[in-house]
Amino acid sequence: MSANGQNRHARTGRLARKLGVVGTGAAVLALPLIGATTASAATPAAATTATTAATTYPDNLDGWIRESLDIMAQHGIPGSYEGIHRNIMRESSGNPLAINNWDINAVNGTPSKGLLQVIDPTFQAYHVPGTSWDPYDPVANITAACNYAADRYGSMDNVFSAY
Q: pTM score, two decimals?
C-alpha cells in the first residue's frame, strides 16, 4: 500500500475505468497526449544538446575569419569578412606565423606578428576573452586586431593601409 493508504493498482484501475467510461474516442485522444508530453519533455534536452554543440571551423584562413567573426559578434566588435580578409592579405598574405623584423616596431624590440601584424602590447591590451593569449594564434590575432581597429577606426572595415 502507498503512504496515502490507497493501493497503487486501484488508482491505475480507476484511471482505466474512467477512460473506458468516456469512450474509445477519448482514450485514443488521451494516448497521444501522454506520448506527446513525454516526447516534448525530451525535445528541449535534444535541442539544447544540438544548440550547445561546438561549431567547428576549418583550420584555414576562411575558418579563422569565420570563427573570429562569431567571437566578435558575441563581444560587439564590428567588422566584416571582406574587411578582415582584405587587411590580412595586405599585412601577412594569410600567413599566421608572419613576423616583421625590419620596421620601426621591430627596431624598438616589438615586432609585428601574425595575420594582422599586431605588436605584443596592442595584442595584450585588445585581447578578446575566450581566445588564446598567443599572438600567433590566428583567431586570437584577428579578434585582438579587430578590437583595436574598432576602438581606433570604428571597424577593421575602415582600415585600408598599415594601422
A: 0.68
Alpha-carbon span 161 to 158, nearest angstrom: 9
70 contact partners, CB below 8 Å, separation of at least 6: 55
How many angstroms from the chain centroid is the CA of residue 121?
Answer: 27
pLDDT digits (tens, 9 = 90+) for 61-116: 999 999 999 999 999 999 999 999 999 999 999 999 999 999 999 999 999 999 99
CA angle 145, 148, 153 (to 5 degrees): 115
Report the distance separating Cα 56 and Cα 84, nearest Å: 20
Cα distances (Å, whole numbers) of residue 40 to 27, 30, 49, 157: 20, 15, 15, 45
Distance CA 116, CA 94 (A): 9
